[in-house]
Write a structure and sequence with these properties.
GO terms for molecular function: actin filament binding; hydrolase activity, hydrolyzing O-glycosyl compounds. InterPro entries: Actin-crosslinking (IPR008999), DUF7910 (IPR057232), Fascin (IPR010431), GH (IPR017853), Glyco_hydro_5 (IPR001547). Residues 1-24 form the signal peptide. One of its GO terms (biological process) is cell migration. This protein is elongated. It has 2 domains: 25-50 and 197-494, TIM Barrel; 63-194, Trefoil (Trefoil (Acidic Fibroblast Growth Factor, subunit A)), CATH 2.80.10.50. Strand 2 and strand 3 form a beta hairpin. The protein contains 12 helices and 22 strands. By secondary structure, it is of the alpha/beta class. Helix content is 30%, strand content 24%. The longest helix has 24 residues, at 199-222. Bound molecules: 2-acetamido-2-deoxy-beta-D-glucopyranose. 2-acetamido-2-deoxy-beta-D-glucopyranose (NAG) binds at residues 79, 87, 89-90, 169.
């Protein structure tokens, strides 16, 4: 395998290093790891209480809202998806009738439409159009909620006047009255489709005065020295730690992100060393968002990472590699979590992976570099021959019996069989004798089966451990802690569902 070649080179240079390195590596692989999810990259679904103290916490960045004129009983719509006027002539709401919020403060917002423009007040007869490529003063609106019915709102424009639906094609910002009656053309019903809860949402939701303390308290308490003791004493050999691109700009990352996650990552390396564990640093959130999920650090859910982001993203890898290359606990750096196809093109991804690999190799010949397979519409073998150009490289695949209709009607045994057959074969496809190592970087014992028994969960987890144990680099459970018991490896171990 590729890394033997490296060891030989080292043998000439330094015999003792080689012995240490080779012993360490042969005894470490494959890793039994756990993801420290929701620690340095927030995921509200795992710990909702983090968001409890945010005012208007259902109106965070990226919240998708639909707005119905109560008088007309019609939805506001960015005609053509954006680029022209906003109308109110739709009786049902879909893409063009859905607006994504950018939160300025707890009551002030921009509205981003389907084609990514911002709705705004554009002079002529105070009409509302969705044509601005960036939000300015005229794209900034205040949402005023009715106290005893917070889904009934007024929308105040930058001219100080309220939006009104004069007719189903004439939406203007010139209403100067008040009142909440159904016949009032300035009254809208706000329908919240979904509210993402990632790092952007929590930091901007609390704002610059409160966010630093909230995040610091979370980082200090969510994962501690004691957790590393627990993990190592229960048979785990490594942690995969999701981080966001802003960590490279600590202690003063661009707003709304706040500094301090780098110190927490430093602590993880200290604790890992203390308990003989290894660290996989996983760049989970990149500038522009590689998948649109809240855990990619996105503001509004648009997936926009591309060619223009490669340089900055490589700089984050360079920063991490430089800082931890000589740390004995560093096992690997994962260049990007879950890029999504086709939005992230294979060409861009390969260009980035090549540069990211080189950045890591500037500082260390032996740390593994992990390449995440694309999710979505992508061939799981598409990186294999490309990865053959590199040394100490790993392909990461994620396996969840969730998130697809395929699993919703499976009984317990069918889920287990799926692991033994389809997952085993999918893993085999990316486990080659001469190429990159394989890594099941995310999996969980939760599955789409309500009311499964403890024995069912034990069997399902055991089937996965048996199959994923064949991955040559190892596996990592998602996650260490989570409000949902089966997603928490800590809980699963403490309650005898999983034994390693
Ligand atoms: C809504 O109004 C716009 C602008 O007049 C028009 O082009 C569109 O066809 C209308 N749509 C419906 C469903 O009435």
């Amino acid at each position: 395998m590729a890394h033997h070649f490296h060891l030989t080179i080292h043998l000439v240079l330094c015999l003792s290093c080689v012995v240490t390195l080779s012993l360490a590596q042969s005894s470490n692989l494959p890793f039994k790891a756990v993801n420290l999810g929701c620690w340095l990259v927030t995921e509200g679904w795992m710990k909702p209480s983090l968001f409890q103290g945010i005012p208007n916490k259902d109106l965070l960045d990226g919240t998708q809202v639909q707005l119905m004129s109560i008088k007309l009983q019609k939805y506001l719509s960015a005609e053509s998806g954006g680029g022209t006027i906003v109308v109110a002539n739709r009786t049902s709401a879909s893409d063009w009738e859905t607006f994504r919020l950018w939160r300025v403060d707890e009551t002030t917002f921009n509205f981003r439409v389907f084609n990514k423009q911002f709705a705004g007040l554009k002079g002529y007869q105070n009409r509302i159009v969705a044509a601005a490529t960036a939000p300015g003063n005229s794209e900034t609106f205040q949402i005023i909620r009715k106290e005893d019915d917070p889904n009934r709102i007024h929308i105040k424009a930058s001219n100080g006047k309220f939006l009104q639906a004069q007719s189903d094609t004439l939406i203007t910002a010139d209403y100067e009255g008040s009142g909440w009656e159904d016949s009032n053309p300035s009254v809208f019903k706000i329908n919240i489709v979904n509210t993402p809860q990632g790092e952007y949402q929590i930091t901007n939701g609390y704002g610059p005065d409160k966010a630093p303390q909230v995040m610091q308290d979370h980082w200090n308490t969510y994962i501690t020295d004691e957790d590393f003791r627990f993990m190592s004493s229960n048979g785990l050999t490594a942690v995969r730690i999701p981080v966001g691109w802003w960590i490279a700009l600590d202690p003063t990352p661009p707003k709304p992100f706040v500094g301090g996650s780098l110190k927490a990552l430093d602590n993880a390396f200290t604790w890992a060393q203390k308990y003989g564990m290894k660290v996989i640093v996983d760049l989970h959130a990149v500038q522009g968002s590689q998948n649109g999920n809240a855990h990619s650090g996105t503001r509004d859910g648009f997936q926009e990472w591309g060619d223009s982001n490669i340089k900055d993203t490589v700089a984050v890898i360079d920063f991490l590699a430089k800082r931890y290359a000589n740390n004995p606990s560093l096992a690997a750096i994962e260049l990007m979590n879950e890029p999504f196809a086709p939005g992230v093109t294979l060409d861009n991804l390969k260009n980035y992976y090549k540069s990211g690999y080189d950045a890591v190799r500037k500082y260390t010949p032996s740390a593994y570099v992990i390449l995440s397979n694309r999710l979505g519409n992508a061939d799981p073998t598409e990186l294999l021959s490309f990865a053959g150009n590199f040394n100490h490289v790993v392909i990461d695949v994620h396996f969840y019996n969730l998130y697809s209709d395929e699993f919703s009607n499976m009984n317990v045994q069918q889920n287990i069989d799926y692991i033994k057959n389809q997952r085993a074969s999918a893993l085999k496809t990316v486990t080659t004798s001469n190429g990159p190592l394989s890594f099941v970087g995310e999996w969980t014992a939760e599955f789409a089966r309500n009311g499964a028994s403890m024995q069912d969960y034990q069997n399902f987890a055991k089937a996965q451990l048996d199959v994923y144990g064949l991955a040559t680099f190892g596996w990592a459970y998602w996650a260490y802690k989570c409000q949902f018991e089966h997603w928490s490896l800590k809980w699963m171990i403490e309650n005898n569902y999983i034994k390693l």
